[in-house]
Every structure is written in C-alpha cells, then in structure tokens.
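Page header: ASSEMBLY MODEL / two components / 324 residues total.
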Amino acid sequence: MWRSLAAAAGIAAIVAAWWLWPTDARRVRARLTALASAVSVTAGEPDLERVTRLAVLSRGLAPDVALEPDDGSSGIRGREAVVALVSRLGSIGGPTSVGLSDVEVSVESGGAHAVATAIVTVRSGGDSVRQFDGHAVRFDFVKADGDWLLQRAGPDPVLARP
Amino acid sequence: MTLREMLVGRSAGRSLARGLAVAAILLAVSQFLLTPVRAHGISMFPTYGEGQFLLVNRLAYRLGPLRRGDVVAITLRSGQAVLVKRVIALPGERVRIEQGQVFVNGVALHEPYVRYRVAWEVQETEIALDEVFVIGDNRSMPERLHDFGRANRDRILGRLIY
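Prediction written out in full:
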C-alpha cells in the first residue's frame, strides 16, 4: 500500500510541477491578464491606484505597440499614445471592466514571438452598466530582455461580415 | 469496513488505477463527445446569459446535417476558444436583414427566440458551400457591437445541447 501511495504522491508532484512551471506560454498569459486588469477602471479610483495601473500597463507594452480596431481606421501606435488613451478611459466611460476568456497562447519556435487569442468582453458605465458582445482578439507579443511585451492587438475575425 | 478501506479500497494500487481510468474516460468524453464551453458576452441573450456553462455535442454534425436554428459553438483560429451563435442560413442560401428582419432566399424568417430587435441593415450575401451564416439571439444591441456573419463549417465544434 505504501508503495502505491508513494507512486500516487510522485504522480501528483510531477503534475503539480508541470502545472506550475513558469513556461513562456504561462508568462505571456500572466502578462495578458495583467494588461486586462491595467485597462480596467474601478469606480472612484484613487490617483495613486490609477498611476500604478498605468505603470503596469506601460511596462507590458512594446515601444512600437499597435492597437488595430476592426472599423478600418489606422488605430493607435506607440506606447505613450496607448497609455494616454487608457488614462482618459475612466473620465470618458466611467468604470470599465475588461475580461478575458478562453485564452490560448502559442509561442513560436525560437521563443522570440508569441500569439495569444482570447474572447474579450467589456462592461462599462456606473449606475447603468453596459455590457458588450464577446469579441475574438489576437495579441502578438515580442520577447525583449526576457520580458514579454505586447506588440499588437487586433480583431481575430472568425465570422466574415457581408 | 475500515477507514483505510473506505479511503483507498482493499488495494491502493487498484484504486489508483480505477481513478486514473475514470479521469481518462472523463477527459475523452469532454474532448470528443460532450465539451463544456462558456457563453461570452451578451449576444445570445435571452437564450443564454453571460458566463453560462454549456455543453457541446461534438458528434452532432458527424451523425447528422446542420440545421437552421441550431445553436453552435464556433472555434477561433487557435481551435479552442469558442463563440456561441445560432445558424440562420445554410450553404448555398442567400441572406439579408432589413429593419432587423432576417430574410433567407427572400422569405422572412420566423425567429421566436428573438425577443427585441433594432433596425439592423445587412446587404444580401450568398453563403458558400463550406459556410453557414450565424447570428446571436440578442438583436437589441447595435449591429456593430454584435459579432455575426459567415462561419466556415470547419470551425464549428458542435451543436449545443444545453
């Protein structure tokens, strides 16, 4: 019996190590989650919290980051421009919550680039909460000095509109 | 029966093997037969709410044809994350939306699952033989915020059964 229990404990330890091992894919996933939190605005957010949130956002963006919307416009380019936009979100749209679901990460061979896809849902507004449809978004990450930085975010259209 | 027998059975090795077998069966069922997915966003309201857990029949379209009105799970490029939508038009059909009313091959479609609708306008499009046209049930939201359109059949994971 003790041998079986030891085997079970060994299997559990291997599974736990595999689950918790900080692979590049898990680092990208953690970065993406942190970025989603950094663009979410709570109601009555104190200034210090806002500054901290924007610092987290800035740390996770590549200098040439590009946000490409699906409306055909040129989007936003550059870390400073993105941070400036996000800093205004709270005053424009009130509290905003950005959620990620079904995140999938694939690290390209060589380990310098990674692509993540996720369903992004947004809730905004204070007293009257507005919630939008979930949209498929593709995130491109680049590795710089051992850190994964967001280089591009844009729609990952699964459905082709007429 | 002793406490030991209750916890690990008469043979710990056999109990471990049984546990692994059950886990393998559950994994196989969730991968190939009934896959749990989650509804994201509000595009399927009121049929399905945000965050609701659903089950997808992975064999539905191996054993039978796609039908209009089916609610299907559609995968992203990564092959994992899913959108949940309703099939409105089938391969070879023509679909358009006027003042929120869907027309398939020129005939107004009866949609008892749509509770409220706003005046969407979508030009007529013909569905290719390897595609279907899908929309969510929530037509009360603005058209540009709702993810809908032609979906490749290869991306359809299966039919929702709950």
